[in-house]
Amino acid sequence: MAEINMLQAINDALSMAMETDDKTILFGEDVGHFGGVFRATSGLQDKYGRDRCFNTPLTEQGIAGFANGLASNGMTAIAEIQFADYIFPAIDQIVNETAKFRYRSGNEFNVGGVTFRTPYGGGIAGGHYHSQSPEAYFTQTAGLKVVVPRNAYQAKGLLLASIRDKNPVIFFEPKRLYRANIGEVPDGDYEIELGKAEVVREGKDITLLAWGAQMEIIEKAADMAAKEGISCEILDLRTLAPWDVETVATSVKKTGRLLINHEAPLTGGFAGEIAATIQEECFLYLESPISRVCGLDTPYPLIHEKEYMPDALKTFEAIKASVTF
Amino acid sequence: MSNATSQNETVHRVSFLDRDSVNIPILKILQADGTVYENAVLPAIDEALAHKIYDTCVFTRVLDERMLGAQRQGRISFYMTCTGEEASIIGSAASLDNDDVILAQYREHAALRYRGFTTEQFMNQLFSNEKDLGKGRQMPIHYGSSELNYQTISSPLATQIPQATGVGYSLKMQGKRNIAICYFGEGAASEGDFHAGLNMAAVLKSPTIFFCRNNGYAISTPTSEQFMGNGIASRGPGYGMHTIRVDGNDMLAVLAATQQARAYAVENNAPVLIEAMTYRLGAHSSSDDPSGYRSKDEEAKWQQHDPVKRFKLWMINKGWLTEKQDSELFEKYRSEVLAEVKVAEKLPMSSVDTLIEDVYDTPTPRLKQQLETLKTHIKKYPKSYPNSEGSV
Ligand SMILES: Cc1ncc(C[n+]2csc(CCOP(=O)(O)OP(=O)(O)O)c2C)c(N)n1
């Protein structure tokens, strides 16, 4: 097993997917020879040729529609949207077409072979348009799977599972961890099952739930809480759609408390959906209201990024408030 | 019914049109040595205008050089230059009326400078301090000024193109003899918004100039992987639009074309497409390394076409500028930029209260409550929030 970073793990997964299925086509803005602005696709054009790994013209709408067309006719399409902030020009193709291909045709056609990969999230001084976490726009749309890895190991296993899944997947990559997260990643082929949350750390006083880049935030908050004698159970949701209600509910029944952390704005964010469901599932077990530590209800700012972020300190405060409710 | 087919000849054998069916001439006025082509028709330009244009060129070169340096030193987080494209940007901006509205992509700060954006204003935006008109919300280079009719830059590409069509139409409806001008790269012209914007402008008769800076690359993607047609200009006639292609490194050609495009747009309430053939001499942005996708030889070749040098030679030939004046101008701006950097980087950031401003016309109760919660938190941990420690 090699110690590699998340970008290398993603590159590895992409290469493996192309190696094991010669119908796999990889494309997007600047992904060809250059290897993408983050270099996630480095070397793949050399390895698999220009017909299978290439630059597209600069049109997300076109990229998504093209992916749908490829997959509807039996290919495996992996499309990179350069930043999640720029997925919106493609939103009609994704939410009306990708998501509904199978349903609206009575399964005469489907685009299960589509995977959209896109870097998301802040903490990189990227301001408005290089920092957003738009996952909730997609979790609202039936027919799409939404996946977010938290480290290099997950990135490879979840990406391979996403590419091979029989449903279209939007794979959000936490860009602030791209180079920062380094870990052991098996050289060989492996998949991590979609739709399953992971219990990262056992605890008894409160369940902390997050995904992607916010995982290290809740882990840090849990460490701070531990010094005050609070024991946190830490869950990584990994797949947002469909999400693993059972694992979360089991944990909350054990700890009696739940805190959900995400970077996207609070209102309409995915934490709201989780809170409502868990409240139904665990009403009689709850010792305090389900707590949400999320981004503010403003666009993503530049200079006040620290203030905007649902960081470890805010999470720590919310943990204390919850256990002393 | 006027349908395109009605004017066309009929043939009785299959014959296809292709890329070469559209032959687009390129307007060139100024030669590399600073002399004008024989028979060239010069734009309206006198000594004062030439100086204003050249002054803007020099300022922009200095700004780009210094701020890229500042980015490398970690004093600002990001920067983008327009090096190599000054003639396209300044030549077009100099053809406009101050009340014409500019909607830029992001690489057109020279047009803003031409309008009168001060060195201090540039620095305030770049350093995101409390005097930044955009209140420190966007990354460096996202300038905007309502006073100067320069709409604030938005990063998502091509969104400004259909917006410009709307701005142009609004100017027409308000009875103003003004136009909107919209800048974009040849890469952005692949977006759906490009088609939507140009088609609507032609159909709705919006007085708008669509100015494409065809600089050869969209980040790493060369034009050969961006489109197969004859550039961007070939699409103009397809939309039913007046169209011209110019040498984008030729200040006089850009000036001439834009002056006439503007006159035509105002007279006829109609859009015009201009394609300026140029080259991005610098990197895409401070985060980019072009050596990964293009050769040093290619860059060196384009150095020979430096638009600023060419225009300078013309001015010298005219007796309007000396080498000495030129170097004094560079020196003046070098020290001005340096002095303003020192001031701007010491100013504080906007207060944390601005975080919830301008989301709506007035902050909603929920936003106010979120701000209060945030401030209470910052008061507890001031050291962890250095940008607002002082403002709570
Ligand atoms: C909708 C959208 N997609 C992708 C990007 C990322 N991006 C920023 S600049 C750029 C290239 C633009 O090229 P071009 O329009 O030719 O302008 P140039 O940079 O050459 O001036 C890309 C892909 C973006 N800003 N917006």
From TrEMBL, chain A:
SUPFAM superfamilies: Thiamin diphosphate-binding fold (THDP-binding), TK C-terminal domain-like. One of its GO terms (biological process) is response to nutrient. It is an enzyme of class 1 (oxidoreductase). Its EC number is 1.2.4.4. The branched-chain alpha-keto dehydrogenase complex catalyzes the overall conversion of alpha-keto acids to acyl-CoA and CO(2). It contains multiple copies of three enzymatic components: branched-chain alpha-keto acid decarboxylase (E1), lipoamide acyltransferase (E2) and lipoamide dehydrogenase (E3). It holds the Pfam family Transket_pyr. Residues 4-180 form the Transketolase-like pyrimidine-binding domain. This is 2-oxoisovalerate dehydrogenase subunit beta. Its cofactor is thiamine diphosphate. One of its GO terms (molecular function) is branched-chain 2-oxo acid dehydrogenase activity. It comes from the Bacteria. Gene3D superfamilies: 3.40.50.920, 3.40.50.970. Keywords: Oxidoreductase, Thiamine pyrophosphate. The lineage of its organism: Bacteria, Pseudomonadati, Pseudomonadota, Gammaproteobacteria, Alteromonadales.
TrEMBL record, chain B:
Its EC number is 1.2.4.4. GO terms for molecular function: branched-chain 2-oxo acid dehydrogenase activity. One of its GO terms (biological process) is branched-chain amino acid catabolic process. The keyword Oxidoreductase applies. It catalyses: N(6)-[(R)-lipoyl]-L-lysyl-[protein] + 3-methyl-2-oxobutanoate + H(+) = N(6)-[(R)-S(8)-2-methylpropanoyldihydrolipoyl]-L-lysyl-[protein] + CO2. Keywords: Oxidoreductase, Thiamine pyrophosphate. Its cofactor is thiamine diphosphate. Residues 55-350 form the Dehydrogenase E1 component domain. It holds the Pfam family E1_dh. InterPro entries: Alpha-ketoacid_DH_E1_comp, DH_E1, THDP-binding. Belongs to the BCKDHA family. The branched-chain alpha-keto dehydrogenase complex catalyzes the overall conversion of alpha-keto acids to acyl-CoA and CO(2). It contains multiple copies of three enzymatic components: branched-chain alpha-keto acid decarboxylase (E1), lipoamide acyltransferase (E2) and lipoamide dehydrogenase (E3). This is 2-oxoisovalerate dehydrogenase subunit alpha.
